[in-house]
Design brief:
By secondary structure, the protein is of the alpha+beta class. Helices cover 19% and strands 39% of the residues. A hairpin with a 4-residue loop joins strand 7 and strand 8. The model has no long low-confidence stretch (mean pLDDT 87).
Length: 159
Amino acid sequence: MSQILHSQFVRLDALQLLLLDRNLENERTPAGWPVGSGWISSGFGERNDPFTGKRAQHEGLDFAGIKGSEILGVASVGVTWAGSRQGYGKLLEIDHGNGYITRYAHNDELLVKLGDGITAGQTVARMGATGRASSPHVHFEVLYQGKAVNPNHFVKQVR
């Protein structure tokens, strides 16, 4: 009888580890909108550049809203950039450790700093119009293995 119980405990431990791994992977994969309120004002892909009027690749989605609105992390792990970067203004970059990196640009205020761990849904910044921006919005990018991918797939997901 004790052999059977021991075998069942080993199986339960293995199952628990598998579920924990699945939950961690789910938390590290981008999903959901990076804003609590707002609307998509510019899509991913080729568009007319608002400053030059010429066709240019837009590697993210722009979510417009009210200056100071909450910007939310869409997946967990760590901040790898928190500061100004040319064109992006005040930029936050989060590496999720599974090939995905998310970027949140044009912020008015950054609420986390380099090296901080964050959780999905956490308020990480406040919406602004810093850098190459004409009005308050967050430029949201998803990179996979270093290449920009269309964020539409991820923002449609529900965590």
